[in-house]
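Box 3.1 — From sequence to structure: Dipeptide epimerase
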Amino acid sequence: MRKLSIAVERFPIAGTFTISRGSKTEAVVVVASISEGAVSGRGEGVPYAHYGESVDSVIAEIESARDFIEKGGDRFALRNTLAPGAARNALDCALIDLEAKATQRGVAHLLGLPPLEPVNTAFTISLDSVEAMAAAARSASDRPTLKVKLGGDGGRERLVAIRRAAPRSRIIVDANEGWTPEMFPDMMEACIELGVAMIEQPLPADSDDYLIEAKRPVPVCADESAHTSADIKRLVGRYDAVNVKLDKTGGLTEALDMIAAAEEEGLIVMVGCMVSSSLAMAPAFVAAQRAQYADIDGPLLLARDRLPGLMFSGSIVHPPYPDLWG
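Predicted structure (token representation):
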């Protein structure tokens, strides 16, 4: 007989994490644990207010699936039981962890994937003053890839300062819907001049049509505009890349399907994350095996991670040990 338990956990952020929509000082996560006999699997979801989620709503969604889970429902049928989001992500990843442990197979074998290899993750520079962002970039200038959060104003100045501070790093710009169509040409020009590798979600999701005619010499990546595999065909012609996040897809099961759909359409794949612990990052690490870009630095932004956590060597993320997940 299966048993489902739910917990809320809090992880302080090292300093403050700021994007165009606001700031936060802690990561609040919901953990689902599914036990069967002596074996237990865990999954972590991050409620995201921008998508109408809260801790209470995610807990309520997980509770709504209690009978389904405790009566033996599987991760494939789960997609017909819960909508995509943090609740389904926590349960999907817990079911995968449970199955991997119960069958004593590693998660890669379970999912029919090659053996897991280390992944190079981007490191995030939070939105701040020009001086503060330049200082953060300078201290991280040995990292191969920096993901730079920008807002609506002062983007060019921030980028110039960051490029000077980290001349050798590959830069991804993430505007989190903070630009307008009127700003886009000038910011695209700045990104070209400063050697930016990719621009993530520059415009609000309801302005996607602008990108059909816009010149995109620097690839543009969908984030808030892309949640599941059902969105992929609509992105073609508007975007060049897609950011796959498990809290959007509703778990690793759908994330792998979304990556396959993106590959079929010739889109660049990034696997990203919310600010969360290594328990959320471990399944994202599995998805990142098939991505051209990985942004799974969530634990590096925390003042403390869970133990055991993922092992990082600079920007290199190593495969998770089974006692963490998988």
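Summary of the box: The chain has a mean pLDDT of 96.
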